[in-house]
Write a structure and sequence with these properties.
The chain is built from five helices and ten strands, in the order H-H-E-E-E-E-H-E-E-E-H-E-E-H-E. By secondary structure, it is α+β, with helices and mostly antiparallel strands. The protein folds into three domains: 61 residues; 94 residues, wza like fold (2-Layer Sandwich), CATH 3.30.1950.10; 82 residues, Outer membrane lipoprotein wza domain like (Outer membrane lipoprotein wza fold like). The strands form three sheets. A five-stranded mixed β-sheet has the order 7-6-10-8-9, with helices on one face. A three-stranded antiparallel β-sheet has the order 2-1-5, with helices on both faces. Strands 3-4 form a two-stranded antiparallel sheet. A hairpin with a 5-residue loop joins strand 6 and strand 7. The termini are far apart.
Length: 245
């Protein structure tokens, strides 16, 4: 009995020793891929941090005008890019003014009803009647007394000065902002269409001429929707009044 018990106990000890050796080898083998994965993670993290810092430095050193040109703030056409020399700024427009490396002077300001804006260091400046390019030059000249070679960009971020009117037997008569290219047909749809008894063949557009006069342009809705005399479907201009009798 003793011999059998000792043999059984000895066999159990051998089994335990073998199990311990097997587990030790397994743990050692597991450590190698874990260590490798840890080293790879550290290398990837360092690379990503380096790329992030480089991107930050690039953005900080870029000129505001270059950023605005690369990414139009409003691709739908309701904003005017910097250095534009065709759009005429008007009252109620909202301007984003950037002075390179001068965040205290860079501001987003509305054009007041008197046509002026107020900017730090530059003071009161006439904006209405100027193009963004002209206003950039005016502001740069005013800031030269305080800033060495100021670089100014002006972006019209909200066009609110250009408007047109729709009056008469229309569902929603009133004044509308002209933020994109519209035809007379588009304007009628924007105003909700006709009311009962509207004379759709006798619509006309009142348009101011450069000499201060006013012209009357006919528009026959019935013809246009049938594809006839499509030249009547003119582009709406700022200050136009569409009358539906």
């Amino acid at each position: 009995m003793e011999s059998g018990f000792s043999s059984s106990r000895g066999w159990t000890a051998l089994q335990l020793l073998s199990l311990e050796q097997t587990m030790t080898i397994t743990v050692k083998n597991m450590r190698r891929p874990l260590v490798s994965m840890f080293v790879i993670c550290i290398l990837i993290s360092g690379t990503l941090l380096g790329q992030t810092d480089a991107a930050r430095n690039t953005n900080n050193n870029a000129k505001p005008g270059a950023q605005a040109t690369a990414a139009d703030p409003n691709p739908n056409g309701s904003a005017v890019p910097p250095h534009n020399d065709t759009y005429i700024i008007g009252a109620d427009d909202v301007l984003s003014i950037n002075v390179w490396k001068e965040p205290e002077v860079s501001k987003t300001v509305p054009v007041r009803s008197d046509g002026k804006i107020s900017l730090p260091l530059a003071g009161e400046v006439q904006a209405s009647g100027e193009t963004p390019l002209q206003l950039e030059k005016v502001l740069a000249a005013k800031l030269q007394s305080f800033i060495s070679e100021p670089e100014v960009t002006v972006i019209v971020t909200e066009i609110k000065s250009q408007k047109f009117n729709v009056l008469g037997l229309i569902s929603k008569p009133g004044t509308y902002p002209l933020t994109s290219s519209l035809t007379v047909l588009d304007a009628i749809a924007l105003a909700g269409g006709f009311r009962d008894f509207a004379k759709q063949k006798s619509i006309y557009i009142l348009r101011k001429s450069p000499d201060g006069g006013e012209s009357r342009l006919p528009f026959n809705y019935k013809e246009v929707i049938k594809g006839k005399n499509m030249e009547q479907n003119i582009r709406v201009q700022p200050g136009d009044t569409i009358v539906v009798p």
